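Ticket 4471: requesting a sanity check on a complex prediction with xanthosine-5'-monophosphate. Repro inputs:
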Amino acid sequence: MILVIDFGSQYNQLIARRVRENRVYCRIEPPDITAAEVAAMKPDGIILSGGPSSIYEDESPQMDTAVLEMGIPILGICYGMQFLALAMGGEVTRSEKREYGRADLIIREKGSLLKDVRDTRCWMSHGDSIETLPRGFSAIALTRNTKIAAAENPEKKIYGLQFHPEVAHTPDGVKIMRRFIFDVCGCEPSWTMKKFAADSIEKIREKVGDKKVILGLSGGVDSSVTASLVQAAIGSRLTCVFIDNGLLRENEALDLKKTFKKNIASKIRLVSAKRKFLSALSKVTDPEKKRKIIGRIFVDVFEAEAQKIKGVEFLAQGTIYPDVIESKSAHGGPSAVIKSHHNVGGLPERMKLKLIEPLNSLFKDEVRELGLELGLDEGLIWRHPFPGPGLAIRIMGAVTQKKLSLLRKVDAILLDEIEKNKYGRKLWQAFAVLLPIKTVGVMGDKRTYDHIAAIRAVTSKDAMTADWARLPHDLLAEISNRIINEVDGINRAVYDITSKPPGTIEWE
Ligand code: XMP
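Returned structure tokens:
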């Protein structure tokens, strides 16, 4: 097992992911972990992550330095490297200028870590730099701006990289990490999703004890996989709640019920709250207002439902890692709030439910792998994400029953064509957007004056960035033909060719 100490870098989950991709189990723990706790976990190696702070800031994260003396192999990355250099008697200088971006890595000595690589590119993101290494360490690589870009103390099995090996911008980063994991730490590539599932189930069982859990089901893969894990852990003490907010796609509630019954054998409560949502949304046009209203009503309805279940103490959520990053801003982090993803913010504290988020270290593709491991249907596993606020954020302007019904028809045609042409798995998401403006057309020799449907199809690995899908023109032509012919009220279809950034995936 490799233990990652989280000094707060945005990339720390990526470190864990790289380790797990090499089939080695990996846990992430906060820096306040004690040496005794580390000893109890028996890690084969420790990676100290990067962090946003300067080592000299008052609030900069610290850890028990006794961990550095336990004889466990250690790899410090960026802040982690500076932390261990300083703690072991080296010197770190504070610099006003940050070195950020690509740099050419010049290798001086291959040592244990750089065996498989030649001079290569690496990704830097730091302000402070190591000036002098502690005794017993030698510098093995440099860049133009960083004289100690990699260092090692083979005797103590302690290594440091000033650059980030975990990001894609360091092309040989994984090779370097592998040398640490396999050669230095002696790990075996034997960890699998099966083990992750077994461990999660065990952890949930331990945490919940004999109490009850409630889970809000969205119909997507994340909440379904979460439900499946919790169900496996505590059986009938799990109750799943699905709220029909009236903003769902065609047949969605029914399909969900069927799929759920087949895949997850727990109790499900279907709550119809269409009217509440739609009346609160009437005449609201501002995207953030829509999101906030939907979020608030969701919480009210969910809370009322939770109160009907006696003795429920836990809330299970399908939060995955990208949600955690993107919602950081919602919790007071430095980045700007782009959209209020209400289902990440969670429920109000007054409900006093303790959270269970077994997927919060996983990326979407890992969640899918886990779902397959748990035996869920492929159809469910490969469902495209669907936002909590549903079609309300795909209808520009005010949401009405009429517009919902139009959009549902358009969306069903689009998804049918995507499925028929086997594009489902190639895309992150495909959906339709209804524009509130009308344009002129001609159908059967008659003038039409109707709404526009926009088609959005994107590819992505984790929704943090996305590109518009290069769907074949013939497929787009068929989609457009069918929409305009089959949906009365739409006379024009356009295709969205914006990537993220600068666009977002959803239009609102
Ligand atoms: P954006 O539009 O922010 O979307 O680029 C990124 C991914 O998140 C989905 N999305 C949401 N999912 N609740 C959700 O569960 C939300 O409020 C929400 N808003 C956007 C979106 O569909 C895309 O996959």
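Notes from triage: Residues 328-335 have pLDDT under 50 and may be disordered. Leaving this open until the requester confirms.
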